[in-house]
Amino acid sequence: xxxxxxxxxxxxxxxxxxxxxxxxxxxxxxxxxxxxxxxxxxxxxxxxxxxxxxxxxxxxxxxxxxxxxxxxxxxxxxxxxxxxxxxxxxxxxxxxxxxxxxxxxxxxxxxxxxxxxxxxxxxxxxxxxxxxxxxxxxxxxxxxxxxxxxxxxxxxxxxxxxxxxxxxxxxxxxxxxxxxxxxxxxxxxxxxxxxxxxxxxxxxxxxxxxxxxxxxxxxxxxxxxxxxxxxxxxxxxxxxxxxxxxxxxxxxxxxxxxxxxxxxxxxxxxxxxxxxxxxxxxxxxxxxxxxxxxxxxxxxxxxxxxxxxxxxxxxxxxxx
Length: 320
Known about the structure:
Structural class: alpha/beta
Helix content: 40-55%
Radius of gyration: 21 Å
Strand content: 15-25%
Order of helices and strands: HHHEEHEHEHEEEEHEHEEEHH
Largest sheet: 5 strands, mixed
Shape: globular
């Protein structure tokens, strides 16, 4: 077996995330496939590159040596690809490569951008990892990244990126079954959820650490299930779990979405891009302006969030 760039990229992803599960999601492949690929790489080299344990994957001394050589090669290949694509984009016309974590504002943002930027090739890359998206912008693989930063868990922002704050503090609501006893109130006390199973996606940067800190501060220790939020929804509607959610979520007939009292869970919504050159400044400004407008639409369309905004006299981002 000859090592290829994709194999080196997989090794770097495992080392960066410290987890086969997280690395597989970052690479867009299944965990069993990545596990098999790692086993083949190690068999080809005749030694283990990572130790596997309950806390994740850690490079062995040999693994660190391999990674020290793999990283520059992967970076150079990424740079070659991004520069080639950028040159092709300049030859073919304007291009805007968007990266984003999940958001209800996305559909409106894309619609607005296509209306404003006629002739621009607009692409979207989704990722659960905000840090992965920021690295992609820094590497020239994306032009802008719309991400959320969990309160108390700062993102690792590469040097050279501009950060624009869309929302300084967006509260995270709680989703539960429609017939959950706490759903009868317009605002839920976290103590009323102390015996519920909480679900969280540990592959979302900062999500588990942020939730754990809030639960500890509230003095409760509920059972926690680790799963993606698509799986969570099917369990929430039948009363098997509750989970944090974006305030722009819903409405749904089979699920109740409520604010938490005193808003202990929150995120910051950010847009990152390179420092604008004269030929990109207007493009980045349009991206931010239309994102702000799309977010306002999504927020005001959701009755529960709209009422929260009125109660707290919280301004929405300016759309221009």
